[in-house]
Structure formats: structure tokens, C-alpha cells
Batch of 3 targets.
Target 1
Amino acid sequence: MVHVILSIDTEGDNLWADQRGRSFDNIEALGEFQTFCEGLGLRPTYLVAHEVIADEKARDTILRLEKNGNCEIGSHLHAWLTPPPYAPLDELGTYPFLHEYPQEMRAAKLERLTEDLEDVLGRRPTSYRGGRWSIEAFTMGRLESLGYAVDTTVTPFVSWIRTLGAAEGGPNCTTAPHTPYYPHSADPMRPGAMRILEVPTSHRPPLRATDGLYRWAGSALGGHRWAWSVVGRGLGVLIGKVISPNPAVTPTEGLLRVAGRILQEEPAVLNLCIHSSELVAGGAPWIREASDAKAVRQRFRDVVGFLSSRCEWRALTLSEYAREQGTSGGR
Ligand SMILES: [Zn+2]
């Protein structure tokens, strides 16, 4: 049985053009997208950023999705936009990772996002993704204490070290397991005994045979900006780039290659990810026209059609999946 998860960073319009996230037109389109997903049998998890629920109209849309029942609302943290404010980093004009903030600020921002979402939903959110893929041991520990059942920030085979926040790079996930695991409290990139479940995104190199090479190179050099810039690119040219499981940036062929790889895995979990803004025309630099948004929908249909022709599959939200693992003794 293949489990299919769709995790959606739910945030302002085109954050690639304006990272302050000031407008929320894309959120209004989510009701229609939800209907589209239901038609395909998908159960999306909308990981919602604080600035979205700070906007009255967008907040109402999120609440309508929550009441719909065929999806889940979780949380997504953009450190520079989530209260309480911390001027030394928030106001730099850069987009700092949460892991660049002092620990007490990380804790405070996580709490505020969780509590404000709880006020909207009438229950605590239990699924999370860090903005700009930021995750480290302290944050994972706070998520666990705040009652989160599942995190989906780890992108196996990928190092974000070349992506800059205020000064630091993003996490190196090259060595992380690619199937769901309970993380180690000292290092979220390796298995341990925490209670929160990590459901990694379905980033995969094109060929299974090169997984070890990616991990080996990533453990040696994935944490060094300049070295990884050379080695990471070299690996991409020589053995194929790691494929993103995002239908807004990866054409059908790549998505089916990832899905095909996952059919061979145990447990088989396909975790597609996308940004809410990538679902509408003008929502991202690569989704300019209505035809681009239409192509994204077609890729979703292609993936579902592929799975239906090859295997038995079932869609779950992130917390539904975590609950099943918990009750089936998945630890
Ligand atoms: Zn985001």
C-alpha cells in the first residue's frame, strides 16, 4: 500500500517577489483547489503561516477548510514574519532562518504561531513545516513539547547550505532517512526516540543506485557552502539532480520517476509538496500564466493516474499518517 501525502506551505502571494507576504489572493483559490483534490482522492495538509491567519479574509478561508474535514490545517513558520518581533533579525531586510534566532526567540515564535492557530481552529495544530526548510534539534524539541505529532521539514538528499538567511545557510539533509522516522533529540537528521514523527518530503535522486553516493558526498561536504556548490552541482551533472516532489517545479516525467522509486520502498510514502501561491497564475515567478497553473493541475492528475495504474494507494493527511504509525507500533 502506498500512502500519499500532499503538504502545502500556505502563505502570501509570490514570496519570491515580496517576502513580506503582504497580499493573500492565492488563499482565496484554496477552496476550489480543495475540491479539485477531493476529485482526485487526495487529502491535503495546509501548513499555514502566521501572516495568513493575521489577515481576516484569509483566516476565514482557512477556517472553512478546517471545517471541510477532508484536509488538515497545520503550521508553517516564516521566522521574519512571525511574532513576537525581534528587530535585530526581523528588520534586516533579509529572510533569516528560524535557526539563526536566539533559542528563546525560536521558542516564543513557535509558541505564538501554535497558539494563534489554536485560537482560529479551536484545537492545536499537530503538523509542522519550517519556513525555508529550517529545522534543528532545539526546534524539533520545542515542536514535540508543543504537542506536534509530525514534522515535514526534512528534504532527504538535499543540502540548503548555499541558501542564505541573515548570515547562515540552510540545513544539510543529505544524510537523513528518506522514509518516515522518529528523530534523535540531538540531531533531527538521524533516527532516535523522539515522540514526534518526521515524514520527509519525497526528494529523490533519479536513480536509486546513486543514493549512497549522494549521502556519502553530503555527509562530508554538504555542510560547507563552497565545497557543496562545486560537489553538489557536479553530482547533478554526473548522476542527475535530486528531483523535487513539487508539481509546480517538476514536470510529469520527474514526478513519475519519484513515484516509481517510491513504489519500491518500504514503507512507501509519497510526500508531494507545493506552495499555495504556486497554484494560481502570477503566484510564483515560474507560474506566470493561467496555462502554467493549469499544467500544475495536470501533473497532479498524471501522478494520481500513474499510481492508480500501478498500485493500491491511499491518501492521508500528515497527522492521520502519524496517528496510524503510532497505533500500529511504527516506532
Ligand atoms: Zn514558506
Note: The mean pLDDT is 95.
Target 2
Amino acid sequence: MNQQNKIRNDWSIEEVRRIYHMSLLTLTYEAAHIHRQWHDPSTVQVCTLLSIKTGGCPEDCAYCGQAARYHTNIKVKPLMDVGEVIACAKRAKESGSTRFCMAAAWREVRNNRDFDNVLEMVKGVYALGLEVCCTLGMLTADQAKRLREAGLSAYNHNLDSSENYYQEIISTRNFNDRLNTLEYVRRAGISVCCGGIIGLGESAEDRIAMLHKLATMPSHPESVPINALARVSGTPLADLPKVQIWEMVRMIGTARILMPKAMVRLSAGRSEMSTIEQAWCFLAGANSIFTSESEELLVTPNPKLTEDRAMFELLGLHPFSLKENQKLDLG
Ligand code: SF4
């Protein structure tokens, strides 16, 4: 691939604003062009996301059905058994996933038996030859190091929104807490998975500020998930309007132009998108999706594996092979 564009970490907010507000067709065209310089546009990484501990979280993220304080229908489940998680990862590998992500609804990691079990899960998934990602809440520098030693490839910790808007959606921690965990992850040699959610009631300027923050980190996140709010009944944001597909395309296209090398992941919200709408996201530079056996992305609906296979066939896409995974050098 002809990588003409250099990686830049010095984007100005004006430049990001100009890219974000390009006409949609021009933005998609430019993003598709850059996407083709850095990636094979016919391949999409399929990641499996498993909720290893569900619900009962003490945090107050206004979008999240797993926060204990909201009256949702989510069933609280304790940390899964290590063997069960490894068996799930094996099935994910057999069905074409090359990255296995484990999510626990915790505020932060504690040095206890549950963390020891998570380390065993990481070791077991790593031994299968999959990329291993975790999202467990806030970490200390030492915990990040232990996860790395266990074989963790990546850690997910989203910025969610702009620094300004962050306090409107979460009051139990602040933006700097997020940045600290990301710093520990980076220093431990783990690749960073960090993106955000749109549709939280934020403005275009908040979206631009979030993308600017990601694109001006000393190293771009290797993985940038772009989520559309999945409205969960019982949460404060349940009645917000559905995110329009063009807003997702705009976010993905801008992320692709700003961070050409990153994996841009079309994350929550796919169950409300048609194949044509998802095709626009791939065209704008998305090159990864999440699947799960339960047809849920954590606690919100996600397309069936069979639907995704049919979509790939129709669009001429194919999932990354494990060999292509290694080429990514994300670990
Ligand atoms: S998003 Fe994570 S930290 Fe926030 S309430 Fe949900 S599970 Fe807890």
C-alpha cells in the first residue's frame, strides 16, 4: 500500500473542524482514499466482545444500562468462570474472530481474586493466538504491567466525549482519570483502544474536540471505536433521538483522515443500521466490527453472525485472517 500521507499528531482544532464539516461526499471520498493507502479496503477485522461481568456498576455513566443506580432490565452477573471464557474465545476463533475483548462492569480494577482470574483469562486467550483486549475500568500502572505480562494486546478505555461534555454524562470520575489510565496502558506497552460515543446530546464542537484529543495524543490509539448511543430504557439518555447514519459516517471519515493507521471500529449501533448504511461506514474507513454469540454488544442488541456473513459476502469483504492480525503488530 502506498502510504503517501504522514502520520500527524499536531492537528489544529481548526483543521479538524474543517475536515469534520466537509461536504459528506467529499469527506467520504477523501477518507476512502486515505483508507486505501494504509489498509486493504476489502478486509474487516471481526472482534468478539464478551461481557465477563455484567451490571451492578457503581459509576453513573448516563448512557449505560449496567450502572447499578438506573432501573433497567439488565440482569447482574458475577465474573464468569475462566474455563467458560476460554471456551467462548475458542468458538469466537472458529467463527472467524481474530480479536477477543473481555469487558467487566467495574469502576476500577482491584487487586483481588477476580483480577487474578482475569489474568488467567488473558493468558488462556493469548495462548489461542488471538489478540486479547480488556475493558475493566480504571487501572494502576502496576495492574497494566501485570496485564501486559499475561499477554494482553490492547486495553479499551474510551474518552466517550469531549472534555467539556464529559461532566454532563458522568460525575463519578473525571476526564483526567481516563487519561491517566490510558497513560499507564501505553507505558506498559499495551496498545490503546480509545474512541467515543455520539448521540449523548453533545454538539458537533464536542465531537470535533474529542477527535482532536485522540488525534493529538503523542501516539494515536491503535484502535478507535466509534459508537452510536444504544438507548437503554431506564437510563437518563433513553429518550434521546436515534443517531443518524450520516453523523456516524462523518465521525468515521474524520477519524480515518486524522488517524490513518488506526483500526477504526464501527461499534455500537449496528443493529439499527441497514447493510447499505454499514457499507457507507466501511467506505468512510471503518475496518472492524464487533460480534458476539449472544447477539448483544454487552447489554444492547447486535446483528446476528449470519447477518454479518451475508453482509460481507454482498459487499465483497472478508474478515482478517490470524496472519493479517500478526501483520498489524498491535501487541
Ligand atoms: S460504562 Fe462502564 S464504568 Fe460506566 S456505568 Fe457502564 S459499566 Fe460502569
Note: The longest strand covers residues 43-53.
Target 3
Amino acid sequence: MRPLTPFFLLCYMHTTESPNRFTMPTVGTSSSGQFSCATATQRTLRDLRTKRKGQPLFVMGHVLNRRGLEAAFEVFNDRLAVVKFSDGAVLGYDPLELLLPTDIDEQGIPYFEIRHCPRCEQLFNLTLDECDAEEEPTACPDCRT
Ligand SMILES: [Zn+2]
């Protein structure tokens, strides 16, 4: 077991708190079943072939005070994915910086299991399978190979 870093702790708290404070956007889609979760081959917004408005995302990115927050995909503007935060703020990100949720429950509440890769210092998301596995991966997909 590796020691908890402050960042990891932050993510952990974020993950456990998120079901209560994240409100799902209702515009554009009728059901949460249309949104995508992380899989072995699809982990960021960039990997999604169909990017639906309202898709829940975990923001990494360059804006420090928005890092680690959840947001919903709005639209593409040039090459940037424009996302909306729960406080109404709207910002553009590289789709690579937007992680898909680990799971979305029947109520449409997204769950993000975000981990910190000790090798490349990047955050990465777990797929539901990885989350349920007896031993979850300790390194990000890029560092595992
Ligand atoms: Zn890594």
C-alpha cells in the first residue's frame, strides 16, 4: 500500500462527496443511458466517437482552481471542448484533459474513481472493471505498457 499523497486524498474526498453536490444537466438529453463511461479503450472525451451534450466529465487541465472538478460537455469550439461547471462557469479544454466517469448510476449520477499515477504524475480514471478488480491498477494506462 502506497502512502496517501495530498492530491490523492483530495481526489478521494472529491469522489466520495460528488454524488451529493453534482447536479446532472437536463438540457439536450432525455436519459443518462446515453452518456459514456470509461473503458479500456475509451478514457477521455477525445476517445468518444459521439460526444453528447451533458456528458459528465472530470476536468484535469490547465486552470488550477478548476482542476479536479466535475463538469458537463457542452459543445466543440474550434478544437476545444467547451464544458460547463456546476457554478455556471464555461471553459474550453483539450478533450484529452477531460476524463470519463467510472460509472453512472440509474439516477444519472456520475461516479469518478480518479487515481494519481506515481510514474508520470498524471491523474487517470479507473474503468468499472478495474474498480471492481481485486487489485486495482496503480499506474495509468500509458505507464502500464
Ligand atoms: Zn502514468
Note: The first helix runs from residue 6 to 21.
